[in-house]
Amino acid sequence: MDKKQIIIVKNLTKKFGEFTAVDDISFSVDEGEIFAFLGPNGAGKSTTIKMLTTLLTSTSGDIKINGYDPMINPDTVRRMFGIVFQDTSLDDELTAWENMEFHGVLYDVPKKVRRERIESLMKFVELWDRKESLVKEFSGGMKRRLEIARGLLHHPKIIFLDEPTLGLDPQTRNHMWEYLKDLNKKEGTTIFFTTHYMEEADRIAEKIAIIDHGKIIASGTSKELKEQTGKTSLEDAFLSLTGSVIREESASSVDQMRTNRRMWKR
Amino acid sequence: MKIYILWLRQIKRYLRSKSRILGSLAQPLLFLLAMGYGFGSVFQKAGEGSYINFLAPGIIGMSIIFTSIFTGIEIIWDRQFGFLKEMMVAPMSRLNIMIGRTVGGATVATMQGVIVLVLAIIFGFHPYSFIGVLLTIPVMFLVALLFTALGTMIASLLDDMQGFQLIMNFLVMPLFFLSGALFPLDGLPKALSIIAKLDPLSYGVDAFRFLLINSSHYGLGVDLIVLSIITAVFLWLGSYFFKKIQI
After folding, report:
1. Lowest-confidence range among A228-237, A257-266, B77-86, B141-150?
2. Which range marks the domain in which residue B163 is found?
3. According to a count of CB atoms within 10 Å of the terminal CB, is the N or C end of chain A lower?
4. Torsion B202-B203-B206-B211 (CA) sign
């Protein structure tokens, strides 16, 4: 059965000055697939997600999101995905409901549908009784749940989750994945996520790609990766592919470099 | 509708931060009372009339420039706390984001200006006419728009709040002190008079004086033309730099 590829990346490269953050990568994600994008810190995961989600322009290469190029049709692409960023992106000074409403308006969800969906999504993430609370009173887990609800408000075809379970307790984590898997099954929403928990990727992802030093070094199902490396767990497979050297927090060093570059330019 | 919700967000945030409203009223009020009454008799003896009447429009200008630059610079906060990302991935153009934010910020600054005006009246300021008071409000908005756009531009160029103090000391303070908010522009030394002419706030304060106390240095027509042109330029520059922000 030939499935439609909803994300197609070909020879994608991103350079910040001399530094190549993403180096000529190609991969694709099928529609309705749960796809894990793994890699050590600073491997290029976030940079890739930023390019897929129109936040960053690529240096070279092609991206197609459901057939559209994020650089040529940014608004069309933006309507197709929802995203939960690595760190929160809620407005603390607004209530939970207002954050949802704000999102719905920005994505042109008609009022009636918007109000209904806000209610059902907030009930689902069990925040409906806290709808009038300011987000700054929320715990980390509650914020995450609200962000997931918000990311789904406009019925996206794809949801990007950048380390969505970081800092969540096992209860919240399980609950969240239950919901996302359910959504994936019922509505066929494609799920693209990154994580440092290999066990999570092993359990949830249908396909995995591992990126390191800006290059994709392996991809396939968890089983294939284990066979390829001759290891019994995905964690061991991951370590044998990427080495066990501890990486510098180069996610921030990329940011740092960008900062420096900006400083020098001005 | 999208621009409206961005605007509404700014207003809600403003109305919810009572401490910020109070905090930003303390300084203009202090200036108005301490200087207004402190220099009152000297000003009177120099034959210039009531200093508090002269000063009040300048203090309104002060509260507007401070509030608008600050709301413009708040983009840095949005960026640090991630909310800017939420706006940037939404299907709307960067230009509209910038417009919604700027108009929202300018509305907040105008509200702040109106509060200072009312307080000034309570503390002894006598506006020339009621119509003048009403007409001042749209001009306040124009001045607020100008400086919010400037704040946005600065925020797009800065990476964090570290530079904020620098901006306050080397840009906002000079703009305020050299604008004629505190002293009459007539009979100034040549250098100071030229500097005042280059300072957009001079025209704002001058327009406020025309409408509030029926006295003006440049004339309302010149004030409004200069303010409109600079606002247009700053809005354009602000959106140009805002578009270049990378997250």
Report:
1. A257-266
2. 2-243
3. N
4. negative
Three-class SS state of B172: helix
All structural domains of chain A with their residue ranges: 5-90+156-172+183-265
Sign of CA dihedral B93, B99, B102, B103: negative
Return the exposure string of A38-61: e unless at least 16 CB atoms fall within 10 Å of the residue's CB, then b.
bbbebbbbbbbbbbbbbbbebeeb
Predicted-complex ipTM score: 0.85
Q: Look at A266 and B16 and tell me if their CB atoms are within 8 Å.
A: no
Q: Hey, how many other C-beta atoms are within 10 angstroms of the C-beta on B22?
A: 9
Question: Which of A50, A78, A101 is facing B90, going by the closest CB pair?
Answer: A78
Whole-structure pTM over 0.90, yes or no? no
- pLDDT tens digit string along B102-161? 999 999 999 999 999 999 999 989 999 999 999 999 999 999 999 999 999 988 888 777
Q: How many domains does chain B contain in total?
A: 1
Closest residue in A to B80 (Cα) is: A89
Partner residue facing B85 (CB), from A85, A94, A98: A85
Query: pLDDT tens-digit profile of A56-92?
Result: 999 999 999 999 999 999 999 999 999 998 888 999 9
Query: From the CA of A49, how many Å to the nearest CA of chain B?
Result: 12
Topology classification of domain A5-90+156-172+183-265: Rossmann fold (3.40.50)
Chain B's closest residue to A74, CA to CA, is: B91
Task: Give the gap in angstroms from C-alpha A246 to the nearest C-alpha of chain B.
Answer: 26
Q: Which two tokens stand for residue A240?
A: 């044998």
* CB-CB neighbors (< 8 A) of A106 in chain B: 2, 5, 87, 90-92
Query: pLDDT (tens digit, 9 = 90+) per residue, B201-221?
Result: 999 999 999 999 989 999 999
Q: Are A248 and A217 in contact (CB under 8 A)?
A: no
